[in-house]
Structure formats: structure tokens, C-alpha cells
Fold alpha-1,2-Mannosidase.
Amino acid sequence: MARLGRLGWGRTAFKATLAFCTIMALAFLSPLGSASPRGFSIEDPPVLVSPVQTARQNAIAAAFQHAWNGYSKYCFGHDTLHPVSNTCEDDFGGYGATAIDSLPTAIMFGNEEVAVQILNFIAALDFKVVKGGSRIQVFEVTIRHFAAMISAWDLLHGPFSHMVTNPDLRHALYVQMTTLGDALSCAFDTPSGVPRDWVDPALCQTDKATQNTIAGAGTMILEFARLSDITGNQTYAHLAQTAEEYLLKPQPATGEPYPGLLGSFISVETGQILGSKGSWGAFADSFYEYLIKAYLYNSDLYQSYLERWLIAADSTIRSIGSHPYGHPEWTLLSSWDGGNLQNSMESLSWFAGGNFILGGMVTSNQTLVDYGLSIADAAGAIYESTKTGLGGEFVTWSTTCEASENNPCDPNEAIRLTDGRFRLRPEVLETWYYAYRATKDPKYQDWSWAAFESINRYCRTDSGFSSLTDVNADEGGSKGDVQESFVFAEVMKYVYLTHLEDAPYHVQDSRGSTKNTWVYNTEAHPLRVAGPPR
Ligand SMILES: *[C@@H]1O[C@H](CO)[C@@H](O)[C@H](O)[C@H]1NC(C)=O
Ligand SMILES: *[C@@H]1O[C@H](CO)[C@@H](O)[C@H](O)[C@H]1NC(C)=O
């Protein structure tokens, strides 16, 4: 880790080397006329983009187009295509989840044709009409559809202002994201102000559930604050902040078994935390993720969120993270139940590596960056160890080993895959994106690319990309016929961004000269920050 750490940070020696490289690069580049049009300065050294990176970007954009063509052909307007049977499903209310979730990716890949197709679709949507029932799931629609629309608005009014210049389409996007924001706002009409997870958008009514997850309550702040800042209507931000207050000052004490780390459920009646069982995975994950990201979004307003994130991160290092025996350089995150820990980690939790790296870069804390890298490296080791080169859904591990005749304590067997399904989840690719930004170590690009090639090889169908039943079986076992919209929103985007050196919407990198002017929501939709960039 120390090796990577030294490479990764704007220390004096590193800066001096960069300055020298800048001069050399200028000398080489200028005659070719391929220098950045922005002009160079010592603070912002150029990065040489290799033909390999360009070829990889093109291959990813082609994979996106392939999956888009399949979805368009068989299921356009439906939520999800099953890419083996070519059947359609409306599992998110029938707003065309895959189409809307793909919009920022299409824009960032420069795919104007697809972007226009999606914007026309959005313009014609009626959010009051829900397919297969009368309610929508607030968490999923917020992070996928709602965030995608806001992100597209930010991208089209920023770095991609040259795309989709039709004012009617742009206006329709604005109207529709506000309409959807109003419908989602209905979720907060509860005794405590903690949202419920299901809303009937036609009647502006919630269901009657007594509890929500802390992810459900704590993953609204970025999207709602952004909509407030774009529209000037502060109601959205206030709703999300009110809910978040219960998570920033959790009650009762048993709901916070480790400082900053909570039980995963919250009462919508009282705002109390229910139980003391939690993890960085399902039901909780993006609550922790958004603490640091809310601060990035508006560092004046959300200072207290940063403080809580630092407490949670510190507790995780002290109490939750653990190292499989023989590998002190890898970190895996246990789940907790009160004070009891279980050495079990699900694929969703792997985002935490990137989250630690981001928080470490933002606060200039190398300990946190290195910790995140040790999670990124554990993921790399797991992916490299399977037959398909892909990770599964669950791992368990041992931290110690009593050697015996049957148990030679092989460090290669310290981590065990207990659920080998590959659900095309993006969290590991996300963590490698942050790891690459922080270190510029090409190994993270190579891991990301290797995973992408495995996806192309084992998951590809005639119409898209399918989940697999077993990453450790020949050919990945069989195809599970599931392709969630995050394949378009996250998988493609994170691999692409990991192979793109310079872009205004990147998170900061190791050079430390740029601040974060964009922040990625939990579905990889970039939002432009509103407060002083950090
Ligand atoms: C602001 O947003 C809230 C929440 O959706 C909505 O009820 C209210 O009408 C909006 N106010 C204005 C002036 O648009
Ligand atoms: C960096 O983070 C670690 C882990 O939370 C903490 O122990 C340390 O004090 C932090 N360093 C600084 C300089 O804040």
C-alpha cells in the first residue's frame, strides 16, 4: 500500500517529477499539434493518452451500443430486457428504467442519437401512469430515473452543451425531472419526515409501512439538494435534510453499535434506528456513501455530514475491516450485529473501497486512501482467482488458521466464494475507478479492462449482457437472463471513465491540483456540485 500511496499523492518530489515531465511532454507534443487545447501549466500537467486507452474506450462504447440496440429492438419503453429470452419486464413501474438510466452514459459517450431518442421518450412520459400496480419504489426511482435526468440536465448545460440543442427537448427534461421530483416528495409525508419506500404518484400517497432502510432515508440528499439548486425551490432539499437529521444524530444508543455505524432500519413513525444489525452492504450502503458525497456537493452546508462520515470510516478501520490470513495487504468488510462480527461480505459492499479513497483524497488523508486501496486490491485478487475472471455475490474468509493435516493454512484459500452468481454488479469496477484516479497505477485499468473482457466473453448475448450463475464454472455456468439498468448506467460508465484521463466531470486525481466539481450519485450519475469544490 505504501508503494501506491507514495505514487498517489501530490508530494513535493512527485510534483517536481511531474513538472519535469510536463516540459518534456510539451517538447514532444507541440510539433505534433496534439496538445490539449486548454494549454498547459505546471499545476495541470498533460496526460499522454495511449492508443490502447482509446481502443478500449471505443470497445466500451461499442458494447453500450450493442446492448442499447437489443433493448431498443425488443423492449424499448419497458424497464428491463431479459437478454437471453428477449422478453421484457416492468419492474420499476414501467417508466422505461433502462432507457432513462442510460441517458447520462449516452451523453458522456458522445452518442447523441441515443441521447435524443431517450429525451424524446422522457418528454412523452406520464409519471402518473404506473404499470403493474399503482406505486413506485422511491429509492430505486430516485437513484436511477430521477438522478439520471438531473445528471443529463447538468451535463447538457455544462461539458456537453453542444449536444442536443433542441430547446423543446431540454425544456421537457426540466419539466419532467421536476414533475418526478414532486411525485417522489410525496414519500416524506410521514409522522417523522423519514420517507416511506413506496409512493402512488397519481394520488401522492405513501404505503403504510412502519419502517424504511437507512439507505432509503439517507440516499435522497444529493438528488433532492441538486433539484432544489437547479429549480430554486428549496423544499426538496429540506425534505431530504429533515430525514437525514435522524441518521446524523441516531437514537437510541443501541442503534449505533460502533461510532458512526448504525443498524440498517429506521422507524418512519419516530425516526428511531431499529436494531443494531448492519453492514456496508444492502439496506445501508449508500447512506454511508452519501455522507461524504453530500459534503462534496455543498461543503458549506453539509460539513456535519463529513464529520459523521469520518467517524464511520474510523470505526470501520478500528472495528469492522479485517484481513484474510496470509494477506495483511487486503481488507474485507465484516457485517455487524451489535458487537458481534461476521466475516461475510456481499458484492454491494465493494463500493466502500472507492468511497474510502474519495473521502481520503478530499480530506488529504493518506491512511483513508490506502485503506480503500486495500479493499480494491482484495477485489482484484478475488476476480483474478476465478475461472471467468469475475467476482461472485458473497465471500467469507478466515483471519486465522490452526494448521492441521487437513488444513495446510494455504493463504490462497483464506477467502471463499459462498455465492458464485455474477449479477453484473458495478461496485468493484467503481472502486477500481477511484483507485486509478488516486494512484494512476495501470493495474487498476488492467483489472477493469479484464473484467470488461470477461463480461464480453461470458455474458454477451445477441441482445445485450446477461447475469451468470457461477463465476467458477466453465463459461460462468449458465446465463441468468437478467440485465439490470445499472449495466448501462454504471458498468459501462465506470470502465470507460477508468480509461479516460482528462474530463471536467472526473473526480479529482492524484495530482491534487483539481478539486471535485462533480459528484457521482450511487448509480454513477454525475451531478455538478453547488458549493465550494473540495
Ligand atoms: C416546491 O416543491 C414542493 C415539493 O414538491 C412543491 O410542493 C411546491 O409546490 C414547490 N413550490 C413551487 C413554488 O413550485
Ligand atoms: C486519517 O484517518 C485516520 C483513520 O480515521 C485517523 O486515525 C487519522 O487521525 C487521520 N489523519 C489525519 C491527519 O486527520
About this structure: The chain is about 45% helix and 10% strand. Residues 182, 185, 233, 235-236 surround 2-acetamido-2-deoxy-beta-D-glucopyranose (ligand 1) (CB under 6 Å). The longest strand covers residues 415-419. Residues 51-89+320-401+409-513 form a domain with the Glycosyltransferase fold (CATH 1.50.10.10).
